[in-house]
Amino acid sequence: MSRIAFFADLMGTLFERHALGAPAPSRTPVEELCAALLSAPGEVSGVRLARDILSHYRAMGADERADFFRHLATELDLDADRVIAAATRYRDGGGPSALADLCREAEPRRQELLRRMNQAPGATEELVRMRLDLLRLLPEAPELAAIDADFQHLFSSWFNRGFLVLRHIDWRTPANILEKIIEYEAVHAINDWDDLQRRLRPSDRRCFAFFHPAMPEEPLIFVEVALCKGTPGSVQALLAEGRTPLAAADCDTAVFYSISNCQEGLRGISFGNSLIKQVVEELRRDLPALRRFVTLSPVPGLSRWLAGIAPDRPEAARLLAAGAAADPETMAPEVQTLRRLTAEYLLQARRPDGLPVDPVARFHLGNGALLHEIHALADVSANGFRQSCSAMVNYLYDLSQVETNTEGFLTGKVVAASKKVQSLLAQGSTTGRKS
Amino acid sequence: MSRIAFFADLMGTLFERHALGAPAPSRTPVEELCAALLSAPGEVSGVRLARDILSHYRAMGADERADFFRHLATELDLDADRVIAAATRYRDGGGPSALADLCREAEPRRQELLRRMNQAPGATEELVRMRLDLLRLLPEAPELAAIDADFQHLFSSWFNRGFLVLRHIDWRTPANILEKIIEYEAVHAINDWDDLQRRLRPSDRRCFAFFHPAMPEEPLIFVEVALCKGTPGSVQALLAEGRTPLAAADCDTAVFYSISNCQEGLRGISFGNSLIKQVVEELRRDLPALRRFVTLSPVPGLSRWLAGIAPDRPEAARLLAAGAAADPETMAPEVQTLRRLTAEYLLQARRPDGLPVDPVARFHLGNGALLHEIHALADVSANGFRQSCSAMVNYLYDLSQVETNTEGFLTGKVVAASKKVQSLLAQGSTTGRKS
Amino acid sequence: MSRIAFFADLMGTLFERHALGAPAPSRTPVEELCAALLSAPGEVSGVRLARDILSHYRAMGADERADFFRHLATELDLDADRVIAAATRYRDGGGPSALADLCREAEPRRQELLRRMNQAPGATEELVRMRLDLLRLLPEAPELAAIDADFQHLFSSWFNRGFLVLRHIDWRTPANILEKIIEYEAVHAINDWDDLQRRLRPSDRRCFAFFHPAMPEEPLIFVEVALCKGTPGSVQALLAEGRTPLAAADCDTAVFYSISNCQEGLRGISFGNSLIKQVVEELRRDLPALRRFVTLSPVPGLSRWLAGIAPDRPEAARLLAAGAAADPETMAPEVQTLRRLTAEYLLQARRPDGLPVDPVARFHLGNGALLHEIHALADVSANGFRQSCSAMVNYLYDLSQVETNTEGFLTGKVVAASKKVQSLLAQGSTTGRKS
Amino acid sequence: MSRIAFFADLMGTLFERHALGAPAPSRTPVEELCAALLSAPGEVSGVRLARDILSHYRAMGADERADFFRHLATELDLDADRVIAAATRYRDGGGPSALADLCREAEPRRQELLRRMNQAPGATEELVRMRLDLLRLLPEAPELAAIDADFQHLFSSWFNRGFLVLRHIDWRTPANILEKIIEYEAVHAINDWDDLQRRLRPSDRRCFAFFHPAMPEEPLIFVEVALCKGTPGSVQALLAEGRTPLAAADCDTAVFYSISNCQEGLRGISFGNSLIKQVVEELRRDLPALRRFVTLSPVPGLSRWLAGIAPDRPEAARLLAAGAAADPETMAPEVQTLRRLTAEYLLQARRPDGLPVDPVARFHLGNGALLHEIHALADVSANGFRQSCSAMVNYLYDLSQVETNTEGFLTGKVVAASKKVQSLLAQGSTTGRKS
Which of residues C421 and B47 earns the better pLDDT score? Predict the structure, then answer.
């Protein structure tokens, strides 16, 4: 591309004069461009250089990308000695200007590079994909983790909650967005456009997503909602093909039955909590008859935990055997045992840090939800039987309680649970267990 | 407000348990809220706390605000000793995790606080205003400069070129935006709605502004453009009331006659260069007949410079005297002298760092523009006579030259100028000056 | 214009072959174009001919326009003999095809011409203006009234209620729409943009307009609304400059204090009734606390009526004298008399057809409103004193009563009035009058 | 429904007083509502009555709908005697007021009813469906044709070209619109969403539709366009799954390969001509490299015509036999014969009125297109072989010629054809035929 040639040329002259030190003879064109972008005064020529770097990057193979990341990791790092020197000056009374020096020195130069690359049109999306490449490299190249910290730092700032936009997703949404909903659905797969339509079009269904203004065609996270009378105990019933939709105004319960993160490249930047709470507020405003906001959530770690205790607990072994049959009739006699052991799992199985073993539980309880109800035969798909012997759970979002619950969960490791769930456990303790 | 009472309460319990150290008895409610927001895990309850802090801030008087900033400066600073320790660990081979520690330690905690405050709806705009309060305090409280560095760092990231949206401003623009154009115009004041209409409605006028998605009703910067045949040499002619508009398609020259920054709270975050270049591209696409993109710019430092040299240079003294009359006829005989001295001023009057004394010149030349033409009797308003004896200047934006020009200006301190302007100087050297 | 030359040419060939009869030698170019447009098969070349006719029309002076209308009136009329023949065939059992012939014959050909002219972009607006030209000609050229019936027939169909769009007008509305609000306000003049802002921006003000999709920048009619606590009795109080706005949610009364038709060219196509009712529904949905929807209306015919009865009724003469002073203090002692006579005027002064003399009363009562309250010193402007001695009136819109009221008004000539207003009259009968 | 009860009640009182004559005892509720709507003064209560009539109509079965239409046909007709009387008065010098009477008398009262029904929200769409019901009834109830004339008259006015909006249809279009594109495609069926995506998403595909503002989610007609280099001769090649899209800017030819009317209820209101011409203008503006605008059209009547001449023309019989094999290899030797006979069919096979037998030819030639090229093996689907032995045709739209062509076609019955097509025929005359 002649534009790159032009820049290669330009660089020649430019770098001799600039205080960048002699360019290493081994520098690749993209490394030259990065150096130029970092040395460009202010915003001058930034957009053009940024665009060129991104177009170089797109054309790279896997090995070149790894090299590029290594370049960022080593050549565009901070200099610890200069940080120490600056920090010492500041500690010794250097005042604001010493602090400014320190802050500048303590930021790896690649951070500024990424910020400048973001000036190009469409760059934000490309940088999110670039980080995804990096995440996939990390297992074999753990030394690149440092770069990931920079991505994460920048993305936290750019994808700040205050910049996100909540949008309704429905059957009037542009098709290019909808196809991404199909693609990104992570909990209960959407098979095709007809399936999608069943989730978006009926009067008792809702879907909401967060978007960022710089990536207007890429949802960041979305939640699917079913409006119901009463709390449903089965996801298959919820998604059944033939069902008759309810009038939204008649419903008293909103069920969050699927929450999917869309951008792997934004891993670690969490949107779910904000999304749920904003959707609760939105639904409450539109549909004043709604009284209850619950999830219908999987219990992904249950079977694994049952397998762990099965040697000592015959009822766990029985459950696993029934689950393996993947057949509701086989499970039917064990329904009560399943509910009881699920309660035990969620309330008592803890990680070393004292928080529950179950990741979905950690997410919702950390958000301030309460463990509201446990259902057997609630997910009778092959996967449902496999991961949790068909059990599913409702977490309840009561906005007036979420702060207290969060506080209790994070500091006291308290799992907020309804009386009903607690009594399951009690029942278990007295009748079902012999330990 | 009872919500604050609730939090005060919450804080009680919360802070005892949290590792925040004992809350100083003297902490104000807003300081408590800040501590709570910083200690809130992830996004939990952030929006609510952020909103409360901002509403507290809004209610504060000037003294309380100064206290609040002092709190940010002292209590929410970084700890230089911890930075040194972390930097030492990293230097000594601590790897990515040591780097992560270092980056965290080296960021003043108030930065994270500001990021979290930004989660509240409308917060970005309020934070920009908050920084404006700070900027106004700085002259008397220079120790707060450290905070300003944090604001500037965050704003650079948030108001990244990649996030800005260019919008046409015309007579179809909502009135609430237009009234801000009237308010923010900084170069040639807009007197009222009729005056505004004369700048926006005619077929040969354009206006463009940058907006940020989180502040959709607040322009960040805007530029007013006149489409002309040939390069105009008088702003009064450009803005005359009775003139007959040209058909846009017939024009060959676009004149940027006014560029105004709108948000004082974003001082130091520069948008002008990007705006001009994007507007050039936009206009070129819409109106292929356009051949020339120039400014019609003031020369704000000219009279001051003339006063400086007047003791040695009788022609400078003559010009100042004619300027003081603020009357075109008086100035008429000096027109050639005025043009020549303006050329000398712009090409030769330099700051210690070698760049031109004139701030407008520094801006456009730094953007890569070329000094194209100098006009006498070009701004015959009282202000025009006062600041530059009525002289104005065209800077030419030729996108194919801007990078070279910028490079030459910044590294070689070269002022790119047309032959015509250079010859003015030559003429001056030989005939007009005796030194 | 060469395109017209082209058509003139085309016409030559075209008309010889077409069954249009020999073109009269005196036909003007625009008449030729009209003939061509009418003879064009289907939509073929219609847009182009329509555009040409409209551009011809725009260029015409007043006399040419009158000639053009005369051409429509005489040459493009229906043929009564053919109508009679077709009607006879249909009466005598000709069936659907005879009916189709009849309908075609009974429609003046200019109607189809106008329909075809409407194919050109922007034509609807131009046809509305064309009718306005016609309306202004009618007083001197009553024979053209026949054309006006065709315009009215078409406009009734095109501007059918089902095609209109209700839009909020506020301070975020584009300036080109707002300047039309200033221009078209017919009841209480809007002096400038500041005055406009006072009517649109405060939290307790609303404005709504009907638009037609083919004229998206031209309001058809708009209503200005003040939200109040209680029913106001003075328009000056409502529009006062210094007042403190109320929170909309606290208001219990919506006051329609100004309704303006914008398009004189749509005279006779009435939108006001629909507008008021749709705005009532809109406001009720948004602001459930609203309990009362009233107008604050002028009484334009009062002074004239008082003058008529003054010879026999000394109190009427007194009122007129006090009104002539145009001074609240002079009127103060007569307040009760003024209210009583206003009640008498509105309830008892009738036209030969039995409906009230007052045109504003006819409008609102015909819409189903009820005469709710009468205020003295309610419009203390010069105009207010002149037309109604400062009296104004509230008409109440209670949607559950409007149909009954309309029915009663139109068939039984009943003026629906509150007890309070009726008692004014009673009071008058017994105490204030001696007849 | 109680609202209807309310009206039934209201009607009781209302009709006694109104000059509607005694209501026939047999009137159904919806007939009462129609009478009420027609008698309602101005717009009063119209919306409500209109809504009720439409909701009644929706609930009707087929027989009731037929009764409803019969009611419109007989009870709400015009009165021929009154028309004759009015026409006579006008002929005898009655002037504008006599003309107004005549116009009113000569319009069947159901027309005003339909206009008033259109005031209800969403009514336009329902009236279009109502006419579709009527069209389906017509074959068995030809006496209802009179009503259809009224529908057609109103729809011509409402769906005037000037009110239609052209919209791009692409992969960003809302899904609820796209599913209608799938449903309404009438030429080359769209199998599913993937197929749709292949027609909308590639850089060398376009789709445009007309919409009416009162039916914003219902396309009226749409055209699918392929951008090509050169004129394509096969629809299968155009729609092939694996093909590599071209850059739009490189294409020189736009091919209209499918035009579908969407609303059967708008039969007889023609949009296709306007659509094609406006799309040509739109494409020309966006893609200046486009030089040629052609269709790739079916020849639906070809096989039928071949069958008619086969007894006398052995080559026609041969073609039909090859076509019946529905196999390209079998057809290959006959390619030249097929092209020749297609030319003969399109140029020479005429209806009694002198216009071509082929309906697609009549449409495009009537629009002013020219028969540009004939392709064998151009549609090798089963249907393609069946209806036209695989032949397809390009009609060329040259906007500078369309008016002349239309004129020649409609008045002189001239089929505009390229030299190439004409030479096919000549070749046929001399070598292929023996007559």
Answer: C421
Q: Is B174 on the interface with C (CB under 8 A)?
A: yes
pLDDT band of C5, cuts 50, 70, 90: very low
In this prediction, residue D40 carries a pLDDT of 73
Is A297-427 the same fold as A162-295? yes
Residue type, B148: D
**DSSP-derived secondary structure letter, C244:** P
DSSP strand E in B114-266: where?
A: 165-168, 205-211, 221-228, 253-261
Is the Cβ of A213 closer than 8 Å to some Cβ of chain B?
A: yes
SS3 category, A328: helix
Active site residue A381: no
User: Into which CATH architecture does domain D297-427 fall?
Assistant: 3-Layer(aba) Sandwich (3.40)
User: Exposed, middle or buried, A431 (CB in 10 Å: 0-12/13-18/19+)?
Assistant: exposed
Q: Taking CB atoms and an 8 Å limit, are D277 and C366 in contact across chains?
A: no
Question: What is the H or E stretch that residue C221 is in?
Answer: strand C221-228
- Is D194 at the interface with chain A, CB within 8 A? no
Q: What is the ipTM of this complex?
A: 0.85
User: pLDDT at residue D195 above 90?
Assistant: yes
Query: Would the CA dihedral through A161, A165, A169, A173 be positive or negative?
Result: negative
Catalytic residue, from B297, B303, B388, B390: name it: B297
Q: Which CATH code is given to the segment(s) D18-158?
A: 1.20.140.90
* Chains in contact with C via at least 3 Cβ–Cβ pairs below 8 Å: B, D
CATH architecture of residue range(s) D162-295: 3-Layer(aba) Sandwich (3.40)
CA distances from D195 to A176, D182, D192, D236 (A): 14, 9, 5, 13
- B173 CA to chain C: closest CA distance, Å? 5
Domain boundary assignment for chain A: 18-158, 162-295, 297-427
Tens-place pLDDT, residues C339-380: 999 999 999 999 999 999 999 999 999 999 999 999 999 999
3+ Cβ–Cβ pairs closer than 8 Å linking D and C? yes
Binned at pLDDT 50, 70 and 90, residue C270 comes out as confident
pLDDT reported for residue B42: 53
Chain D touching partners, 3 or more CB pairs below 8 A: A, C
Q: Say how far apart CA A72 and CA A143 lie, in whole Å.
A: 11
pLDDT for C428: 54
Contact check, Cβ <8 Å, A84/B91:
yes
Average pLDDT over residues C133-146: 94
pLDDT 10s digits, C61-72: 999 999 999 999
